[in-house]
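Weekly puzzle thread! Below is a chain. First person to post its structure in token form gets bragging rights.
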Amino acid sequence: MGANFSTMLGASIPTWLRLGLVAMAVGCLLESSLTVWAQPATAKAQATGKTPATGKVAIGVTDVIAIAGGGEIRGAVVSKLPDGTLDVAVQRDWLDAHAPEAAAALIAEERLQTRAVMTSLAKRLAATIDSLPESRTRTLGLLRREADRVDDWLAAAEQARQRDAAGKLVDEADDDARPLRPPAARRGETQFTLLRIAPQRVQKVRASGQAAQRIARWAWSERLEDVEGRSAPDLTKELKARGIDPLAPPPGLGDRLPPLPQDDREWQARMALVDDALGEPVSFQGFGDRVVKAGETEEGLVGILPQLAQLLGGGDGALGGLGLDEVLGGLQKDRLPAAPPASAANPPGQPAEKWLQSARTQAADVGRYRATRVKLDPAAGRAEVESVFEVRMPEGSWEMIWRDTQSADAAAVKEGAAEQVEADPRIAGLLQTIRGLGLVDEAAIKRAIGVGAATFAAQADLDSRFNAFRSQHIQRLDSPPLRWDAR
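Winning reply:
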């Protein structure tokens, strides 16, 4: 389970279980992060060097890590370090039941960390709010709402600390007097934490498959009972009874994490996402190595005109020079990026990321941008759409915060999409001119239209995925973790 994760860990911990709040990269649970700072396990665990036995349970939907000396951990392996160390996401309720002393130690340290994180966030928010002009109303609205939330949290934490100090702890023994909620939710703690297991303690890892991963994430999302001990058919039955398709793309679980420390680079990246969403977006579009500012190009379907010219043989295209560059030039009126050459996007001798260098230069005064380019394969009737979001860090370097690609294939275009392209007045004008010249057969025209429609759909898919990524990381400014490199 999992995707790319990175860690920051202090001193080594001489226990069977390297347990802690480990700062990591995650975008959603199993594809996002779970984090805690390193803390020693309990004295009992240190003395025995063994994991509490979990007992025999049926093969389920989670990853299972067999611990040398006995016992096992059930959860999701979210990263494996080069030395073989594993970071494993575990439900708190499962940890409470199978390693209660370690769970108690972890909770105590998390509370201290969370208070420090929220105090730091309050200071950052205050400084950022003071630096912005009142004309930035949308951004200021978000920051002030976050500041109020953090202040409320700190006030409640102080009240709880005072009650604890006075010995006025809430008695949780009488469950009958409380709503039926999972213990972790009742305590007000996050659903998940993370265990770090040293390589010498890992005897064997039994990884779950993709289908099992999805079932587990849905079951965790719905907070089903004993997810770790139940079979896939059993969980599937309960999920379907709730109207859930357990094999559908599962929800992210990043909000089930405790607040985590942020360094200046992460804060810079998060605020760049805020500015992109609520301020003036800075976007570039183009083909191959050439991108231009989105505001200087046509939006919508007309933006694929240069691609159609390439597919139909513009310039040195795969179908031969048919003079379509001149036709396209008349339709462009200097508002569209030039039709791309038929050569590879990055010919020998040119930097592989030349298009990013161009975008960085144009966005230097803003310090952030999103760029999208199309790479054509005219002979195969396909294209690949690639999109990135980059942010300039405080020390001046550019960091790629998000990157995604989507293939566009004429054979896979949805019904009616090609007709929508042909119906656009500007595109219809180009096609009428091309057909009038009689230099391109109708099959080639249809193939070009299909690739154009598929490219437009691929761009829309990438927009949707970026918007979801951006929204996930700005709804709250302390979680989920925003990681993008090997930290």
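Puzzle host: Confirmed. Bonus trivia for everyone else. Confidence is low (pLDDT under 50) at residues 2-57, 177-188, 314-352.
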